[in-house]
Write a structure and sequence with these properties.
194 residues, alpha+beta, FAS1 domain, 3-stranded antiparallel β-sheet, signal, FAS1_dom_sf, FAS1_domain
Length: 194
């Protein structure tokens, strides 16, 4: 039931031309592309590879997420909650973006239940718990720091060396820069107290 529901949801989205997901992978691949500036000769960061697509600073958070094959569940949920337009807005926003594999860790039926129209408010609460106002890059996140989410509750940052955790969810890809904020890919869905 779970797979057929998502296939139906994603097939409809593909038919509308809104999802450009490539082959699904279960691990996050990162790659930074650098080019030399002709005027200064210095390296300039062009983007980060996430889910088989290059995430570039010229696109907004949603436009970048649409290209990631690892975030199709998140994109479908954002649309179902009516949050796409907000996350395409000026911002800036910091988004902790769970992968498809992160959603798969939830108890069976959780995602399907949240995607039902009558649960739109609960879904929006879960999703906005993953969003913090402002543009916070990995260098701005400190061990023990509390982040107040758009949803109203707080997230706790834990750092050990280069590893960053958000309420126990590990950041697998940091600093995906978009025109209206920054995204950090996480391996677990973090849930508010609801």
């Amino acid at each position: 039931m779970k797979k057929s529901f998502f296939l139906l949801t994603l097939t409809g989205a593909l038919a509308l031309g809104t999802l450009t997901a490539s082959a699904q992978t279960t691990t996050t691949k990162t790659k930074t592309t650098k080019t030399k500036s002709k005027t200064t000769g210095t390296a300039k960061k062009e983007g980060v590879m996430v889910g088989g697509a290059m995430m570039v600073p010229s696109k907004n958070i949603v436009a970048n997420a649409l290209g990631s094959s690892e975030h199709t569940t998140l994109v479908a949920a954002v649309k179902a909650a009516g949050l796409a337009e907000t996350l395409m807005g000026t911002g800036p926003f910091t988004v902790f973006a769970p992968t498809n594999a992160a959603f798969d860790k939830l108890p069976a039926g959780t995602v399907e239940t949240l995607l039902k129209p009558e649960n739109k408010t609960k879904l929006a609460s879960v999703l906005t718990y993953h969003v913090v106002p402002g543009r916070l890059q990995a260098k701005d996140l400190k061990d023990g720091q509390k982040l107040t989410t758009v949803q109203g509750e707080t997230l706790m940052v834990s750092k050990k060396g280069n590893m960053v955790m958000i309420n126990g969810a590990q950041v697998s890809t940091a600093d995906v820069i978009s025109s209206n904020g920054v995204t950090h890919v996480i391996d677990t869905v973090v849930l508010p107290t609801m």
